[in-house]
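Next up, a specimen:

>
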Amino acid sequence: MHSLEKALNTAEAKNKLNPHIQLYFGNQSRSQIAKKISEIKTNKKTNGFNKSDVKACQRAFLSAVLELQKQATQDGGDAVINILSNYRNKEISSDTEYMCGSGALMSGVALKGTVVKLAQ
């Protein structure tokens, strides 16, 4: 398990994440939902060779949340809520952590969530 806060606050994440598509993990509080649009999943892996587990996992996590944001944009949503880890189909919901699997060569993060349009 790794820190959501640390992963979301890296310079790379701050530079690449879309500020117009909000991300809500676990049961984090948010605005009311105007419309539920779709359920989405992502499974991203990165080369872990010559990287610490933390760095490799942060990179895989960023790829996964960027994919969630991309799918939300395509589906017409402005947020992804109830995001949970779904590594090897084991669901773990947390407001503060995500699950990453790390080996000698690869690290992976699988996430799932619900695309919504939030009430204004």
